[in-house]
Amino acid sequence: MRFQTCLAAACLSVLPLAISVPPAHACGGLFCQRIPVEQAGERIIFAFDGQQVTTHVQIQYQGAAKDFSWIVPTPTKPTLRVGSEQLFQMLRDATQPRFQVNITKTLGECDETMMMTRGAVAARAPAPAAPVNVVSEAPVGPFDTAVLQANDSSALKSWLTDNGYVLPEKIDPLLDPYVAGKYYFIALKLRKDREVGDMQPIAFTYAATKPGIPIRLTGVAATPDMGVYVWLFAQHRAVPDNFKHAEINEARIDWTSGGGNYSEVVTEAMNEAGGQAFVTDYAGKSSIVEASRFDPAPLATFARELSETTDPVEFTRKVLGNGQYFLKQRPTIGIAPAPSFGGDRDQQMAFLRRHLPKPPALTNLTDDEFYYQIEDHRAVIQKAQLSINGPKVLKELEDTVVAPARDIQAMLKAHPYLTRLYTTMSPEEMTQDPTFVLNPDAGDVSNQHVATGTRLCSKAYNPMTAPVELTLKNGLKFIVQGGFLRGNTPLSSPAPMPAALRVEQFSTVGAAALISNVMPQVQSILGKMNAAIRADAAAAGSDIGAPGVGMGTLGPARPAGSAKSSGSGGFGCFGNPVRSSQGSSDDGLAFALFGAGFVGWRLTRRRKGS
């Protein structure tokens, strides 16, 4: 039996995804100024004021609407509402790490006749049933919701199953620690008149002293090296509490593709840190996200005007022509998110099917044929006496569009600091729930990573294939050759050097306690690699300058005697293939809507590095 249940935001992480690969582009130079590919995975937003937590979770699901179920524990009683996809998209775009090379100097003289243009696609036996306390049941946006408490996991599972929630058979042990801790459980399913296209993030608020993620409930359905993205709005920078913190070795980054292998490097760094750690992608002012983009006033005006539109043809035109007002845009999976903020066509169609269904005489038409050619069917619509329920339209838009924008704008204005944390985890590493604390002494972290480049020219190279010496902000220097960091990124081959430059442990005050620092080792490796590439270049008749301290190259050098760059180098981008990875109640720990995703139920496990 194939379960299509989503017990949290892990839904898409367990699905085989059809990834859309962007077309090849020649970048007009050696380095492509792109942002790294973002994995499919868990995306969670916290707003924390020291006493309560508001959590927004992006629910990603593929399957039949009737099979959707979603469950998550919280330590105290929650209040629920819906969120906005636009907030997630804006946060992803504003805080995504960016890797850029500024070539400021050229030494020597290159052969201008050797120019070429190339591009590439980056590419347990059940316990006796016990009563379940139904704290509340209510519709919230597109969902039917229930808040529950139970004294026994089997009783909780039975209640959920009896009430239309699709659950895996072996979920009981995953629920046990939360039932024992007297947690509340949020349960969602789609309302009978809603479609998968109507889904939007869920938001809930509850009293707690720490934000955190119930990752243990995710482990049974997670994919290996699943990406976990956390944004935390507060007064100060957020740091991992019971997980370690790592700083990646940026000499492992493929700078020629704008950091296309960023997720792979983070995965290796997390493994080196013991499998339970986070990196900080951004820490700084929350004004990086513009609160004005969530102004509820124009949304409320649109909702009122649409609800007052009684002509079906005009109603349809307003819906299809004003997608920007729906604020429920779906995320892009496998490629960098687009910067636009229009509505999603499928969601607009779902809205029309609900409020203006096809007349019986036209049910054979497709949605496009009916709604996009609505004027052609005016006579049939009038004969069928179709009408618009204005109050119903107004209430839906108020609940799912206007109210979320109002709440988000207030959240952005109330929290001056934003932290983005990222990790990748495999099921066997999901043995404790990560929590986060605020540390006013921790410094800011920019998501803009800039390396300074010096082109090392000779007659053996053209300007686009000449070796380039990169200098990082932390002083590390290394040489990239032929426009490509060959041997730097494949996870199937031995790493040329550690991926985690520093591993440390933060607390609520002061600097982080250092656990390990491999900077001297990395400098030594780079120095040896640098010597090798210079020797090969000299054998090829090239003089790329005298060796410098700490300089090096990543990957194998060109074969001796070769005057041109190898086949893997050249003009344009040579990035990596697109890959889809993407306590007790007394502690008052706040847990995000993470749970376990059971869409396309899989128990496949593999250890990292196998």
List the helices and strands and how they pair.
Layout: E1 4-7, E2 41-48, E3 52-57, E4 70-74, E5 79-82, H1 85-95, E6 98-107, E7 132-140, E8 143-150, H2 153-162, H3 172-180, E9 184-190, E10 202-207, E11 210-212, E12 226-234, E13 238-240, E14 244-248, H4 262-272, E15 277-285, H5 296-307, H6 312-321, H7 345-355, H8 367-371, H9 378-383, H10 390-414, E16 417-425, E17 436-438, E18 448-456, E19 468-471, E20 477-480, E21 500-505, E22 513-517, H11 519-539, E23 589-591, E24 596-599
Parallel strand pairs: 2-12, 6-18, 11-23, 14-15
Antiparallel strand pairs: 1-24, 2-3, 3-10, 4-9, 5-10, 7-8, 8-9, 12-16, 13-17, 14-21, 15-16, 18-19, 19-20, 21-22
Low-confidence stretches: 1-35, 116-130, 329-343, 483-495, 546-610
State the total count of DSSP E strands.
24
State the helical fraction: 10-25%
Mean pLDDT comes to 76
Structural class estimated from helices and strands? alpha+beta
Shape: globular
Tell me the quaternary state. Answer: single chain
Helix count, DSSP H or I runs of 4 or more residues:
11
Strand content: 15-25%
* N-C termini distance: 28 Å
Radius of gyration: 27 Å
- List the strand order in the largest sheet: 5-10-3-2-12-16-15-14-21-22
State the major sheet: 10 strands, mixed
